[in-house]
Each structure stands twice: as C-alpha cells, then as structure tokens.
Queue: 3 jobs
Job 1
Amino acid sequence: MPPFSLKMNHVAMSMPPAEIAGSRREELLAFYGRVFKWTEYQEDESFNEQFAEELTALVGEKVETHPPLVMLTGIGFVFLYGLPRPMVTTPVDHFGFEVDTEEELDTILERAREWAKDDPDVRIVDKAVSSYEIEEALQAQYPAKKVDLVNTYIGYRMPMAVEVQWYRWYD
C-alpha cells in the first residue's frame, strides 16, 4: 500500500497570551515579515470566541479568549495562541522550510543577522553543510546519488525555531 499523500498546512504553538498581544505581537509580525516575508491573517471576533471554546474543550479547563496570531507563510500558516501554561520546548525544537536556492537561504539568514544587531531575542545557528550518500535502493526516488543539506536555524520569541534548508544534489 503506498503512503498517504499528506500535505502539512500549519504549525500551531501555545505561548503566553501577552507575547502575542500589543507591542509584542507587532514585534513578532515585524521580524517574521522582514526575515521570512510572512504576513498576518486576522480572524474575526466570532472565530476568537469559538477557538477559546475549542481550547477549553481540548485542555479540559476554562480558557480566556485571546486573539491568536496567524502568520501566512506562502505554503501554509503558523498559528500562535495564548495559554496561561504554554508549551515548553528545548533549544533544538524546530519546524522546517525548504527553499529553492542557496541564495534564498543566504538572503533569509542575512535579514535575520541584520535584525539580531539590534535585538538580542534573535537566535541563529549559522549556515552549515552536511553531506549524504543516497542508498542504492532509494536512488530512483532522488535526482542524484549524493546530496549536501545546507541549513540554518533562526528563532525569535516563538517556542520553536525555523530551520531553513536547501539541497545541493550531485553525483
């Protein structure tokens, strides 16, 4: 049986409500807008109330209504919502995006470095390259026999960092 054709469309993370409100919200939007070109999608008040009811049912206790922060990524969205006891992550927790060229990766990384000059909340794991040989049994599924994974990690106030990857294929 072939695998399902699943398409990931969002990542949802809980944060302290104050981190996605007011000036902190604007700072998140400014950073992710500048570095990754993400844009805000605003839900209406009825959605906010309905989502608070859904969260109450999911966590098993009353959850106050806090407008979530939804950032459109171009292929899906990042959904940040407020909880009094938000998720706890480690420095290695992340989600990833693939870019089409190394230049795109470099541009994103440079934008993050520029922002980091004035904001200590930016976390960057610099660009790295890991090389892999594709197993012979899998080579028909890939464009070449070897690949370099070029990546960087960029974090800013969200519980998880964003990994940006580019694949350099060769024989």
Job 2
Amino acid sequence: MRIAPRRPLEVAIVALIIFNVLELGVSFRLRSTVQPNRPSEVFPKPSGYLSNGVFVRFPTAGCYVLRVSSDHCGFCRLDEVEYTELVQRARNSGCETVILAPKREQLESNRETSEVLQIQYIDFSFGRALVPYATPETIILSGSGRLVWFQEGAMNQDGLTQALSALGRTSD
C-alpha cells in the first residue's frame, strides 16, 4: 500500500513558518523605532479622567514626566527605585508627574491622593499622541510639550542617568 505524498503539505507548513518569522521580524522592527511623538511635534498637555470621573487638565509646568504603567505589570516594579528618584528630581525641578493606565481599570483608584496623579481614562487628544505598546514607558516632555526623552521598558541606572540629563534640557 502506497502512502499519499505529503510533500505539498510539508511545503505549505514551511512556507507558513517562514511567513510568521518574517512577520515577527517586521513587527519587532516597527516597535523598536516607534516613539510616542516626533520630536518636532508638540505633545498635547496631559489630561484625562481619574477613576472617579473627575477631569484633570494640568496647568503649564516646566516639564512633564509621563509614565504608562499598570498595577498588574511586573516589569513596572523592576525600576521602582530609578523611577522614584526620577519623580523626586522632576518635582524638585518644577515638573508635573503623571501615571497613565494603558487600559481602563489597570490602576487602583485609592492612589488618587498621592503626589503623582494617576489617570485612568485619557483625554482623546492627549491619548492619540501616545503609543502605549508596552508597560512601563517613561516620557519626558518640555514645558511646551516637546518630546525630550523616551524609554520603553524598565529603566536601569543608565536609563536614569539619561532621564536626569534630559530633565536639564526641558527648558524651551
């Protein structure tokens, strides 16, 4: 008894594997080059809604430190020491600090009284300027809303050094 040739099926499977590998490569390449906004464009002022429905629009500040984060993000806790130092230095420099949830209900509502506001629902004009692919993301904007520094993923000591250096470049 002769078995039907499996050659066409094997070729189709190999072709699908190659296609998927290429697709992953293109996706990775696109993600690695994406920034939340082009440096020449002006980012809208941070604004949005707290979980209790209160709308928050930040006043003009010397700069803004934005963090896309989630309570369920394990990677967001990896750079807690570096991020805390960045927030302290930013606040001492007159910057506003904001934590943004990438999706609703990903931040606890009981933290609304902290120094760093946590926005659950982002205003549309502000939200469309963001590209929140992954958490954490840390973004530093000048007072006029120009992108000064951006990092996707947890900060290490080198990232903190770059972020602190960027704080010095926030004046327009």
Job 3
Amino acid sequence: MLWQYTRRDTKVLLVAVLCTFSAYGFLIGQGWTSRTTDVAITANVVGVFAGVDANAENTLLAQLQEREHALEMREAMAVDRVASGTDDTTLFIVTIVGLALLGLILLNFYLDSKRRGALR
C-alpha cells in the first residue's frame, strides 16, 4: 500500500522512475529485434538458359562478375559486423546509465530517510 503512506512528491518521483525504466526497456527491446534478409527461393524463380560460345570477353566478364559478387558479400559481412558492434555498445551504455540512475534514486531515498530521522 505504497500510495496510502506517501506524499505527492514521492508519487511523482515513483512515476518518473517507472517512466524512465520503461523508456530504457523500450530502447533495449529495439536493439534485440531480429534481422532478416531477403533470399530468393529457387522454386519461385523462373529461368531461361541461352548459351553463347566462350570467348575471351565472356570469360573476363564472368570473372569480373564473380569478383564483384565476392566483394559485395565481404562488404555485407563487414556491415553486419559493424552493426552488431554498435548494438552491443548501445545496450552497454543504456544499462550503465540505468544502473547509475537507480543508484542515485536509492541514494536519494536513503538520504531523505536519514534527514527525516534527524529532524524527529
């Protein structure tokens, strides 16, 4: 029965603390969303094959396309690695700030109770 024995200021502080922690929970929840990639299923792809005799230009073009594809894959892996690192950093910072705020709130309650005991 916290609401019966508290003052209005304490109620406002409690509501502010609850709002702060719910905001941090929302931030943390956004960082844990799953990432999906679009992958074409071969059953849904319609293909037509047309053959051209191999010559120097065709082979060079095929090699160039393979290299470009390999570079795109490496770039995508690097972007995923960087993105996952920032999510972990953000989660760490949010957790530290939340714990610091909780410590300050508890310190405030302790000092208030000590001051009230000294006044009585």
